[in-house]
Amino acid sequence: xxxxxxxxxxxxxxxxxxxxxxxxxxxxxxxxxxxxxxxxxxxxxxxxxxxxxxxxxxxxxxxxxxxxxxxxxxxxxxxxxxxxxxxxxxxxxxxxxxxxxxxxxxxxxxxxxxxxxxxxxxxxxxxxxxxxxxxxxxxxxxxxxxxxxxxxxxxxxxxxxxxxxxxxxxxxxxxxxxxxxxxxxxxxxxxxxxxxxxxxxxxxxxxxxxxxxxxxxxxxxxxxxxxxxxxxxxxxxxxxxxxxxxxxxxxxxxxxxxxxxxxxxxxxxxxxxxxxxxxxxxxxxxxxxxxxxxxxxxxxxxxxxxxxxxxx
Length: 312
Description:
Blueprint: H1 2-16, H2 19-39, H3 41-52, H4 60-71, H5 80-108, H6 114-145, H7 153-170, H8 173-203, H9 212-245, H10 252-259, H11 261-266, H12 269-293
Helix pairs in contact: 2-5, 2-12, 3-4, 5-6, 6-7, 6-8, 8-9, 9-12
Membrane topology: Multi-pass membrane protein
Transmembrane segments: 21-40
Protein name: Mitochondrial phosphate carrier protein 1, mitochondrial
């Protein structure tokens, strides 16, 4: 009796997409993004310094050993508060609003290709998420690349605002959109299509017929594919953001000219794939684990026109 009621409650939440459903998605996005970005802070310190000081730090090993020697182990914790709070806030908007917009656009754009719905849903969510993230990112990048600028958010915010005002906090918003909009659009679309592909062609069973561990395994594989591909697409804008915030150039055109078009794609790409791929995988795992613990299904759609897939 109780199991039937519980099952019915789960279906009702999912079908009606109640405020509670979106609340769980936002909470899951906040906790998953905040904790994973916090965990990879040392790698992020390396990435930012390699972007800002490419002549000094030509490889991951050189960057690590030089920073360790010159600044000590504490340098690899620099910017942790900006990553945790900033990317936690972004994650709440990114995941929660993606689910919200996907429901709206699915009802409005009935005849449109699924990929288009994923693109516009993730783009709509990301526009808002980056407005929330931008001030945190401004402080984080400065703190990581300029050891004497500030210790963290508490002293970094007033210092940057006093010297540059609101413009200083939002100077990188356009490049941030340039980095995160393509990343989010590719990431969510790749995740959705990867989930569909894995169930139809690898597992060859309905999602509902798989155990929770199996479903979370699909989430991890799809998450890694989504993060890796998204990091390649968004790498040029990531280099631009780091350069602008550390005053290596005053405009977008000057950044592109100074770095070079090809290097925008290749500079710090290996460490960014190392950074983003596992981070996004963990984000999706934590996110879906929170949804499962709340009585919700794991993320990702499986095409309804192939319900009865698998060997016959």
